[in-house]
């Protein structure tokens, strides 16, 4: 089983020992609140970013474009750590993916 480290941009972090299953499920089992919506990888509300280690999506992450996946973004509702892993979480992470058409 893996050690999952969750970090938020405003400073807090949490370690989840023996994390099993998707990041979102492990966080909820540990009493932590993360944003989520559909729980199927379609909406993108749960977007996080892998900072260390790796994850496997349990099904295709439809809410992420290939370039975002290549940059380490994951959907925590369907992303399972493959070992020790650090994931940046929180609503700010999804905002990174939004493009301003007026730039």
UniProtKB/TrEMBL annotation:
Give the source's domain of life in one word.
Archaea
Keyword Amino-acid biosynthesis on entry: no
Which Pfam families does this chain map to? Answer: Fer2 (PF00111)
Phosphoprotein: present as a keyword of the record?
no
2Fe-2S ferredoxin-type domain residues are 2-93
Q: Which Gene3D superfamilies match?
A: 3.10.20.30
Q: Which cofactor does it need?
A: [2Fe-2S] cluster
**Keyword tags:** 2Fe-2S, Electron transport, Iron, Iron-sulfur, Metal-binding, Transport
What PANTHER family has UniProt attached to this entry? FERREDOXIN, FERREDOXIN-2, CHLOROPLASTIC
Name the protein family.
Answer: Belongs to the 2Fe2S plant-type ferredoxin family.
- What name is this protein filed under? 2Fe-2S iron-sulfur cluster-binding protein
Species name for this entry?
Haloarcula onubensis
């Amino acid at each position: 089983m893996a050690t999952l480290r969750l970090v938020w941009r405003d400073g807090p972090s949490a370690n989840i020992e023996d994390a099993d299953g998707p990041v979102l499920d492990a966080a909820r089992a540990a009493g932590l609140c993360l944003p989520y919506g559909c729980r199927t990888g379609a909406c993108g509300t749960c977007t996080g970013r892998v900072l260390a280690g790796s994850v496997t999506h349990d099904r295709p992450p439809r809410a992420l474009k290939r370039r975002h996946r290549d940059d380490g973004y994951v959907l925590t509702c369907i992303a399972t750590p493959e070992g020790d892993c650090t994931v940046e979480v929180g609503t700010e992470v999804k905002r990174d993916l939004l493009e301003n058409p007026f730039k």
